[in-house]
């Protein structure tokens, strides 16, 4: 039992590290999207894009055997932080007037 748990923990640690690297890469991309949106006067959140993501990730979660409610909460947690950052970038640049969403 002990040996198997220790072996599994080794894999869990590798998976956690991968998640951190993936999230860091994702935030690098979204940070740049935030700068481009602020430059263009585009709204921080994009509800149409998000509804497409919800649909797509819900399908992928079901296929992968991942709880769909959990998948959506996880997506929403990350995207909320992205949208908060986009609003902060726009505010830092004095870009308070929003023209439209990107989609
Ligand atoms: C990154 C964007 O901005 C927001 C964040 C999203 C995300 O983290 O995937 C998706 C849509 C937007 O609400 C974008 O518009 O692409």
From TrEMBL:
Stored InterPro entries: Chorismate_II_sf, Chorismate_mutase-related, CM_bact, CM_dom_sf, CM_II_prokaryot
Domain Chorismate mutase: 1-90
Gene3D superfamilies found in the cross-reference section: Chorismate mutase
GO MF entries: chorismate mutase activity
PANTHER family hit by this protein: CHORISMATE MUTASE
Keyword line: Isomerase
Protein source organism: Sanguibacter inulinus
Keyword Nucleotide-binding: no
Name of the protein in its database record: Chorismate mutase
GO biological-process terms attached to the record: chorismate metabolic process; salicylic acid biosynthetic process
EC numbers, comma separated: 5.4.99.5
Claim: Isomerase is one of the keywords in the record: yes
Highest taxon listed in the record's lineage: Bacteria
């Amino acid at each position: 039992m002990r040996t198997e748990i220790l072996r599994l923990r080794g894999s869990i640690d590798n998976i956690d590290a991968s998640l951190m690297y993936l999230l860091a890469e994702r935030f690098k991309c979204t940070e740049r999207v935030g700068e481009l949106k602020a430059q263009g006067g585009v709204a921080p959140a994009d509800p149409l894009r998000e509804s497409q993501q919800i649909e797509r990730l819900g399908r992928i979660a079901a296929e992968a055997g991942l709880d769909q409610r959990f998948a959506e909460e996880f997506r929403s947690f990350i995207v909320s932080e992205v949208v908060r950052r986009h609003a902060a970038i726009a505010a830092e640049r004095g870009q308070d007037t929003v023209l439209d969403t990107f989609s």
